[in-house]
Predict the 3D structure of the following.
Amino acid sequence: MAIEPVCDKCKKELEDFGALLFSPPDEDNNTRKFHLCRKCYTEIIEKNELL
């Protein structure tokens, strides 16, 4: 990949395309964007029983 993002959960560089997690907007309509590797994405999904 040309851009080398780091997973915001485990802090490892993404070696493959991962996932993005967006926060809800705050009172100024700003959101935060988090990069997740595939492993951390799967952990979050399974922990929260989302799929």
Observations:
- The mean pLDDT is 94.
